[in-house]
Amino acid sequence: MSAVITTSSPASHPAPDLALPSPSAVLRDLQLNYGSQPVLMGLNWQLLPGQVVGLLGRNGAGKTSLLEALLGLRETQAGSVHLFGQPVAQLDDACRARIGYVPQQSDLFDGFTANQLLAYFRSFYPRWNEAKVEGLMARWDIPRDKPIAKLSGGQQQRLSIIRALAHEPDLLVLDEPVASLDPAGRRDFLRELVEQVLDRGTTVVFSTHILSDLERVAFNVAFMAEGRIALQAPLDELIDEVRALSGPTAALQGLIASDGLKVLSRRPLESGRERCLVRSVQGMSGLPPSVLSEALNLEDLFMELT
Fold first, then answer.
1. What is the pLDDT of residues 268-299, one digit of tens each?
2. Please, which of 63, 130, 151, 183 could form a disulfide with 155 given CB 3.0 to 4.6 Å?
3. Both 41 and 141 in a single domain?
């Protein structure tokens, strides 16, 4: 049903511009191999301003490789990556200053103290927010004058996060950013992440294996499987719209055709039966008695889609 009813002609009253904002990142047809082993296979992906996207995939699915390719840190065999409209291999300094990154393995300068590290990076970023840095350093209780090599794993990870947030990036990429943090530290970081998005419209993409953390902050989830993004959508929509259907193959095929359901995955069962993961925006008109419908949580979706 239309939300607006009008009798005016298009010529006298032009339609409003409902175009989406320009993407922060566009990845097209990415191909990445390690030797003869394909990792990314014709991968396409797009990230919009203000999106928080949780990237999910099994161990070895290529999540780190994808994030590195997104940032131009990993050379691909084919395809293209554009950040803020520029080819990733040709980013100018202004564009680079709009990006924040927390890698899976700390890349801090071990011989520096926290103060020295932050002073070094401050010189590269015109938008450096010293008040944010001071607040996080105090709240997360990071020693300022101890060599980074002598900080705990959690303290090093917090410092890496502060460095990535300090210049208020428009694109923030985080690879397992909370792996070394305790539950309280994870909650505090995730709260900071949400504030960053709400205050500045930052695009955030992060991989994690802690699904409960992702449920707190990821408005969108992207499932990676077989070298591609198998599905990306708002998490609440997926929970509402995706169902696992089990039943005779013929009954399922009839239901899928009649209701226009989108099949996300299918798996054969015994005795001419199968299990299908389907998505329906409009809902299903009615299930045959032989078909069982099951609602799924995020963990279920992860297991089915990856």
1. 999 999 999 999 867 676 788 999 999 999 99
2. 151
3. yes
